[in-house]
Amino acid sequence: MYGDDGDVIAVHGENISLVDLHLLVEVLHVAAAEIETNRPAVCSVVKECFRSLRNSCVDASEVQTLIAEKTTALDDTKTILQSLSRLQDNINTIVVQVGVQFLGNLIVNNPNNQTIVWKKLSDVLM
What we know:
The chain is mainly α. It has one domain: IP3 receptor type 1 binding core, RIH domain (Leucine-rich Repeat Variant, Alpha Horseshoe). Helix content is 73%, strand content 6%. It contains six helices and two strands, in the order ββαααααα. The protein has helices at residues 18-34, 40-57, 61-70, 73-86, 90-107, 111-125, and strands spanning 8-11, 14-17. It has a two-stranded antiparallel ribbon. Helix 1 (18-34) runs parallel beside helix 4 (73-86). The longest helix is centred in the middle third of the chain and has 18 residues, at 40-57. The protein is globular.
């Protein structure tokens, strides 16, 4: 995941830089630390990170594997979902929906990721 600037992965016929993917996960990590503040700007950043991660996983098993195995995205997602479940309001509901969609795309046709996600997040998803 932490390759050279030139390392790219094809997603839907377009290339995504591994550096860009890493930066997206870093933004999610920082936002996860601030999610308890329940500030609309933080929730908006988290929602957009989840959307980008969700979209990057579609038909991209290599991206799915990188995200699940080599980033903090799952741990941060767990933190975010746990926090938002305590802060229930309309904006948070949308963030949770997009977060769950990201997890869904992360595990589609990827049995290894299904196991990883279940082990890390089953208590939050149940």
